[in-house]
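User: I want to check something. If I give you two sequences, will you return the structure for each one separately, not as a complex?

Assistant: Yes, each is folded on its own. Here is the first sequence with its structure:
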Amino acid sequence: MKVVSADWVLPVEGDPIEGGAVAIEDGVITAVGSAAELGAGEHFADAAIVPGFVNAHTHLEYAVYAGFGDGLSFGPWIAMHVARKSRLGRADMEAIARLGAAECLRSGITTVGDLAFSGATAHACADLGLRGIVYLEVFGNDADDARRQFEEKRAYVEPVLSERVRLGVSPHAPYSTSTAVYEYAARLGLPLATHLNESRDELDWLLHGAGPWQAFGELLVDPLEESGIRSLAAAGLLGPDVVAAHCVEVDAEEIGLLARHGVSVTHCPRSNALLGCGIAPLAELRAAGLRVGVGTDGVSSVPSHDYFEELRAVISLARAREQRADALSATEALELATLGGARALGLDAGIGSLVPGKRADL
């Protein structure tokens, strides 16, 4: 048995413990308490032991893109990165994803929910010891083509899948992926992640076929005449296995639809702010009972995988939106970053807090 201790232990499920310690055996937490009870073991001075952060929405294959397209609006930014990805092979993607995984680990992130264009993130996680669900992205109008995309990527990641590195599917977004492709993805019975209601320009296209995205129509599916959330709800494609990233441009009815169907939400405040998309209604999402985690998104839209910077943005932008200094506390932000993210990804039985029986991801 190994014991680690610090000036503070913050279990998240339970009160902070001054002079706390965590006992670990075979990678599993066996006890949490005071160092006086459990022994000091390996002591970390001037430190706190917390659950490993859960970065619930990432694109690690974009880890070297920081600064490219800064200042572009959402549509031109997407078009630029679509072109950039087309010039990279799997070896490139693996090298980039390994960098992203290393940056996550350096920032205290031990689990990711990664939406992977190629699947390289699965190899990076397996190599570097990062826990994650790797959601393989599919795009387009045709379900048969989406099946071919998915099966090719699954064959590539299959050798490195494990209890720690799990498989999911990501029909990219309602503006880039048809309802038929969403239906195919749902039939796979895997964890599913997608991008929903991220920007006003997205809604202008989906509702009316109008706005700035008309210039990029060849990259998009036909307008739905309703929002992505409403469209997926009407098609019976929302449920507890669905993780919806962003949810910035949502009204009360759409929040209700997400809540009634048990959908999880990943909140990416720096990405939404830097792309000019707005600030997601975090208070309303939480009040509706939704499981909410925090994600950095890709370094294509943020400067880094620095999770402390992300949490500062979570707090400051929540307070700015609500115009209240008490709108979100540091304690609440820590919960979102750990147990909240674990719940959003459906992994909270094993991670997200420091309690006996959970994995010693800390």
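And separately, the second sequence with its own structure:
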Amino acid sequence: MRIRPCIDIHNGKVKQIVGGSLRDESGKESVLKESVHKERLSGENPLRENFVSQKDADVYAAIYRRAMLPGGHIILLNSVKEKEAYEADLRQAFLALKEYPDGMQAGGGITPETADRFLEAGASHVIVTSYVFRDGELDRDHLDEMVRAVGKKHLVLDLSCRKQENGSYVVVTDRWQKLTRLVISEETLDFLAQFCDEFLIHAADVEGKRAGVEEDLAELLGGWQKKSRFPVTYAGGVHALEDLSKIAASSGGRMDVTVGSALDLFGGNLKLQELKKMAEKLSAEVR
């Protein structure tokens, strides 16, 4: 188990937001109607921010570099269609990548045509979700194009998901606004692992809420990782050191974890070095 740090950027600012509260510029939601969550039906609640930093992204990248925590992710939260805001996000992302070259991954609106720009700026990997889906289905042509563009060893597939009434977890795209028809299962993970270097999976229902991890999802991912030994990073809901114990137990101490809103850097109560030590301890113990 390793701590994978994060830098989320929105409107050119480093932020922590509540998962699923981000909307298209138009303010309209575009979710498959049969699976819309109640909290998203009110028409209220545009963007719920847990934290907005006055510091540039490279400040956080420097902290992660000094802490020797590679493999974190930088996510550009604005849509590419929001040109001015997305460009502001890019400027911040490139500052962070310059500060910690080959130490962080980057995602958000990336296509085969733009991926090289991030890798050349210092990203170790590009993170992709929406590009490899079309009309709720996995788009094999787009997936193959992305693999050809950057190579398997530089690609991370973000399979962030939401829990459905039947207990399954379904991948969400477009900043978690659209539910696909791809269910997270051992078969799905086995298949997609052929195309990428690792998975990043946010539990979108609990992301940013500091209310505990999505234990059923952690069990599913951890059980698969025990057998596959394929790199997986879980994100969402971590708010106490005990949450790391749950994640470690599910995966034999192998699954990595991202902590966002609960981190003291972002206004939370958990210290980065304490998390790092706990993760190292659990990794040694649980195996």
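Because they were folded independently, the notes below concern the second chain alone. Residues 26-45 have pLDDT under 50 and may be disordered. The chain has eight helices and 15 strands.
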